[in-house]
Each structure stands twice: as structure tokens, then as C-alpha cells.
Amino acid sequence: MNIGIVGLGLIGGSLGMDLKALGDHYLLGVSRRETTCQKAMEWGIMDEASPNLALLSKADVIFLCTPLAALRPTVNQLVPHLSSATILTDVGSVKASVVNDLATLWPNFVGGHPMAGTAESGLDAAQAELFVDRVYALTPVESTPQASVEVVAGIARSLQARVIHCSPEEHDRAVALISHLPVMVSASLIAACTTNENEDVRSLAQTLASSGFRDTSRVGGGNPELGMMMARYNKDAMVRALSAYRHELDQITQHIEAEDWRELEGILKETQRDRQTFL
Amino acid sequence: MNIGIVGLGLIGGSLGMDLKALGDHYLLGVSRRETTCQKAMEWGIMDEASPNLALLSKADVIFLCTPLAALRPTVNQLVPHLSSATILTDVGSVKASVVNDLATLWPNFVGGHPMAGTAESGLDAAQAELFVDRVYALTPVESTPQASVEVVAGIARSLQARVIHCSPEEHDRAVALISHLPVMVSASLIAACTTNENEDVRSLAQTLASSGFRDTSRVGGGNPELGMMMARYNKDAMVRALSAYRHELDQITQHIEAEDWRELEGILKETQRDRQTFL
After folding, report:
1. For residues B61 and B3, is the Cβ–Cβ distance under 8 A?
2. Quick check: B52 contacting A, CB < 8 Å?
3. Each residue of A206-244: pLDDT tens digit?
């Protein structure tokens, strides 16, 4: 199969590595930067690479691996080069707004979201087998051609990912809870600790900070643009998740203020048990 | 030196292991359970062990390693067996209430808090070199004998811990921020995700949960009694930390609701930078 990849960063580059390694595909890569294209060719991840989207006219399937904000302009520029049989799919972490947008521009579009990533970004961060045993969510809608869904699912399975299907809206509400909400929860923790008005306390907190703070603050210290984009493209689910979260936080706070220690311990027993079940 | 340890759990057991390994000390252990005493003797962590606090009458220094709630009753029972030269010190994660309480019962008391621990508890979880390179906070007050502070600091340094001194109040405000607040922040995240009213979304969230949720929820899934005790014995600093946290969370939420994406990204840039500086 001729497989195109637009955006040769962590996800696009890793996808290319594994697809090329399968030996069955001809890989066509597009990156805005000529140097990235050359690197992808030198590393043997791509058979051809260019900053020019026209390269993808011979692709059967194209993975859109750009940031969320670049998806629509990319598809707009890509469409003149495509035959109607070309399948487009994306890897964005938000689905409803993306699917609504892109399926209008290109009916043969399959929304996708591989649950894989690292703290790094860019082609240098690409790694083999990034998708092995990871969930790969596909979010077809009524108008999505079933055959195209099968093609994308087949490619994802060939990377040893675990393919699941869900609606774009359910996907977005779920990732708002387990992926986007943690970023805001964690960022707020960093801000509360590092902006304390008492310099002695702030300095002491820094000295005493250990694994609890480190783990809880990790995702709040991640890529700011990505965090902002999650909220921007998943605003409704994000606001809903934040509201549910604040309700839980307020309950805990009220128990502490009222010295309802039994109630507080009851909640912490539930969260201990529920986390074990959940993970 | 004759060193007593009351409470042979993770911290008491680990302390015993390293102090015994130094070869200079005679170790006296007290645990409520006879089987724990026997185990500590069999493992060679203690020279003598007993459920009877009278064993500690010959100790020069006694480490109180019980849960916070047991500290006061333990010291009350211990006092009749001690000579006034005996130094008492604790390892509790809260200091102001403990120091106020115990220094009244026993003037020769030095508040302490080694920043070490694991997710496990009990003697079986004890491990050698738990305190190496960890911060060991000592919180003397005006009435604390300076010579006793030096003795405890010397023992902590012999475990290769990094000894720091601070006031009990500053300690509590700092640990409220970086240790106790994360527990409540993280528990609220678990509750928000696992109690979502839509079963499909909840189930999908469970399927999609990966490292972001895992890390951010870790401390909220820890020991419920310990989490409750942190809040109970550090209530004022905890309430203050929760209030500061909620202010930060509300700001982020308001920017998302108002679609102030530049402001949101600005906050996330700050938290990314501040976390790097902080850790």
C-alpha cells in the first residue's frame, strides 16, 4: 500500500518507522521543513519525502499527524491532489470537532487517536514499536465508509495496537476525564506550590518536594501548546470535566473544614479502591 | 548508643536496619504485636524487642515511629520509664501540632520528619538505605535542648540523610503544599473519573486511561488513613493550600470558559518552566 504521512514528528515519525519495517508499504512523507524530510529519508523511514503535499497524490491512505490547528488548512491544501478513493485519517487527541470539520471537507475520512506518546516531540523523538499494546481509538460516524474504517483498523492492528471503536463525542468526554483534566489539575498544583506568597515556605517546599509532587505535577509541566489545544478543541467536555472535578474537590475541602474525618477517610478509601479497579 | 524505636513498620524497621548495620548501636524495638517483635529480632534489626515500653528505660534516644494518632498516648505511657536525659524524636509528617503536644509532655523532644517512604507499609516493607540522600527535616523550637538536636542530626547524617532545620509551622505549610495537597488533588481526580454518571463514558475512560492518569492519580490512591491523618493534624495549612489551589484551578477554568487561549497557554508555559526550576 502507498501510505502518506503529513507531519513527521513523534507520532508521524514513529508510525513511519513501524510501517516501513513491515516491508509491505511504500512510505510518502510530508514535512514543512526540508531538513526533516531529508532526515526521514536518510533514516530509511520514508521512501520519498517532500514539503510539497502534491507528493501524496499517489497515496492510498494518508495519516494526518500535524498539530490540531493545522489539520483543516492541511486538508484544504491536500484535497486538490487526491482521488476520491484516498482515505484520510488523523491521530489527533480530540475527535468531535475534528471529525465534524474534516468529514465535511473529505467524506472518505476516518477519525483516529492512538493512545501513545512520550514527553518528547519531533522526529528525533520517534521510536519503533510506540503503538504496541496501546489502544488505538477509531471514531467513525454514520457517513464514514465502512471499508475505509477497516483499512485504517487493519493498519493499526499491524502495528500491534488494540483497536477500539467509539463515537467522537464519547471519545472526547472520556479523554477529557483521563487525559485533558489531569493536565489542568496538575498545572494548578504547580501554580499553587510555586507562587506561594511566603518565600521561606516556597523555598522549603522546593527542598522537601519528592515523588508525590513529582508524579502529580508531571503532566502539568508538559507541552503548553498541546495542553492549550486540548482545552480549545475539546472545550465542552473539558468544562464538564472541570466542573465534576471541582465538585469532588469541594466535597473533600468541606469535610476537612468541618473536621469530618470519618467522611474524609471514607472518600479516600473509595478512591484507593476505585483506582485499583480502574487501572 | 542505645537507640529505641517504637513502631516497627516501614520507617521504624528501615531505621533499625541501617542503624544496626552501622555497628555502633544497641537497638531496642517496641511493637504492639509480639510476632513483629520476634521478626525484627530474627532479621537482626533489633538486639531486643518487646511489646512492653519498659524495655526502653535504657535507651539514650528513642525514635517514635507510630502513626500520628498514637504519638501522644505512646509518650504518656513511655514517660514513667525514662530518665530526663533520654531524647525523644518522632518521624511524623506533620510537625506543629506534634511538637506543641509532645514537647509539653517531654521537654527533651526533637521534632523530625525524614522525607522517605514507599507505597508499602509494615515491617515487611522495610528496606536498607531508605534515607540515603533524602531530606531529613528537624523542627526544634526555642525550648528544645540544642545538644539533643545535635544528637538526632548526627544519627540522621549517619544514615546519609540531608539534615535541614526549619520551624514546625513553616514545615507544615511546605508539606501541605507539596505532599498533602497532592493527595487531595489526586483523590478528587480519581473520584471525578470513576463516578462519571454516564456508564459508556466511564467504561471508555477506563479503556483509554494511560500514564497521564496513572501518574496524576497515584497519591490519591494511597493509604486512606494516612491521607486523612495528614489533613487532620495539618488542618490549617491544608485548608490554606486547598484555597490557593482552588484559586489557580478557577483561573484556568475561567480562561477555558472564556476561550482565552492565549492566557491559558501563558499559564501552562509558566507551570512548565516553574516545575523544571522547582524540581
Report:
1. yes
2. no
3. 999 988 999 999 999 999 998 999 999 999 999 999 999
Q: Which among B251, B89, B103, B106 is positioned nearest to B154, based on CA atoms?
A: B89
Determine, for residues A220 and B269 on separate chains, whether the beta-carbon distance falls below 8 Å: no
Nearest to A191 by CA among B172, B173, B244: B244
Q: Which of A251, A214, A255 is nearest to B192 (CA)?
A: A251
Between chains, do B216 and A182 touch, taking CB under 8 Å as contact?
yes
Q: Do A224 and B166 touch (CB under 8 A)?
A: no
When CB atoms are compared, the residue of A224, A248, A278 closest to B209 is A278
Task: State the Cα–Cα distance between residues B118 and B271, nearest whole angstrom.
Answer: 27
C-alpha to C-alpha distance for B173 and B170, rounded to whole angstroms? 5
Q: Residue A59 and residue A87: Cα distance in Å, rounded? A: 9
Q: How far apart are CA A236 and CA B132, in angstroms?
A: 47
96-115 in B: which are within 8 Å (CB) of A?
A: 115
Of B91, B142, B141, whose CA–CA distance to B112 is shortest? B91
In which band, very low, low, confident or very high, does the pLDDT at A24 lie, cut at 50, 70 and 90?
very high
Report the complex ipTM: 0.89
SS3 A167: coil
- pTM for the whole thing? 0.88
Q: Which residue's entry shows cell 482515505?
A: A87
Q: A220 phi and psi, to 5 degrees?
A: -75, -15
The pairing of beta strand A135-138 with beta strand A112-114 = antiparallel
Cβ separation A259–B181 shorter than 8 A: no
Grid coordinates given for B242: 486547598
